[in-house]
Amino acid sequence: MLKKLIAFDLKKTRPVMLALIAITVLVEIIGEILHCLIQKMYYAKATVSPDGRLSIDTAGLPLLYFKLNDWVTLFILILPALATLAAIYMIRYYYKTLYSAQGYLSFTLPASITKVVSSKMIVVFIWAVVYIISALPVILIGEEIIQKQCYPLYEPNTLDAYISALLVILSDDFMLVLLLEALSQIMALFFCMSLGQLSSKHKLRNTVLSYMGIGMVSLIFFFNIFTKDEAVWLPANIIYSLILIVIFYFATIKVMNKKLNLE
Q1: Domain boundaries, the chain
Q2: Which one, of 160, 164, 95, 151, lies nearest residue 124 by Cα?
Q3: Rounded to two decimals, what is the model's pTM?
Q4: Considering only CA atoms, which of 147, 151, 145 is closest in space to residue 43?
Q5: Are 56 and 43 in contact (CB under 8 A)?
Q6: DSSP line for 176-243
Q7: How far apart are CA 29 and CA 174, in angstroms?
């Protein structure tokens, strides 16, 4: 039954999430095109000495070069805004299908509350991973094309190099820690949503206040560990985030099973 619930939630969220992913990829493509134009201008008067040194004359850069830099900056700022929209949509979907009037329909399904809630959480995590991974190929391929078209000392990358670069990004310790911390914060928000349902009034206010408290405390611990030596903070933060994810998951399920109030 859990597989059917996940498939249903993926189908319901697919149109909006695929649209946001498509817009994100389009923004990245436009940004890479602008970046390519900037690099062409930057290396237009580049010279390579006999010993392989690259010299660049930046004195005569046109005004368009600086204008395009501003546009690239704008597109860079749009990307986190789109990611935020995606997160807000998925959190709204989670809340709407569990705690609003639509929540009654979710809990009339022939499935346990644990499976219904777990499905929503898993789908949120699936789209988070898909969203992040979908952005990487555009950047990697775009930068390779830019280097090929603009950089005087360009050396082509092999397929193995692409795969290695992708693996380096995905396996980067710092990114792993940030991803796990982000997931733990999402789980904390889910838990706080369930806490907000314990009261008959001011559910949203109680959700926000409880998340401010729990989220702030967890972030303080996270950054406190982060200040330690790498040999300490890396495994400590990974373990800490995983523990929080597990605790918030089971706590949310517990509240939903025992204390659910959709009035």
Answers
A1: 1-48+57-155, 172-263
A2: 95
A3: 0.75
A4: 151
A5: yes
A6: HHHHHHHHHHHHHHHHHHHHHTTSSS-HHHHHHHHHHHHHHHHHHHHHHHHTS-HHHHHHHHHHHHHH
A7: 26
Among 190, 240, 237, smallest CA distance to 210 is for 190
Contact 99, 262 (CB under 8 A): yes
Distance, CA of 185 to CA of 6 (rounded, Å): 22
- Integer Cα distance of 173 and 177 in angstroms: 6
Dihedral sign from CA coordinates of 150, 152, 155, 161: negative
pLDDT digits (tens, 9 = 90+) for 113-163: 888 888 988 998 899 888 888 877 777 777 777 766 666 555 665 656 656
* Cβ neighbours for 37, distance < 8 A, ≥ 6 positions apart: 68
Look at residues 82, 105, 101 and name the one whose alpha carbon lies nearest to residue 9. Answer: 105
Partners of 55 in beta bridges = 47
Question: DSSP assignment, residue 157?
Answer: P
Looking up tokens 């649209």 gives: 19
In the numeric block, which tokens belong to residue 45? 């008067």
With a CB cutoff of 8 Å and minimum separation 6, the contacts of 166 are 136, 140
Is the pLDDT at 54 greater than 80? The verdict is no
Of 18, 245, 260, 263, the C-alpha closest to 116 is: 260
Using CA atoms, how far residue 16 sits from 57, 103, 234, 252, in Å, is: 46, 20, 35, 26
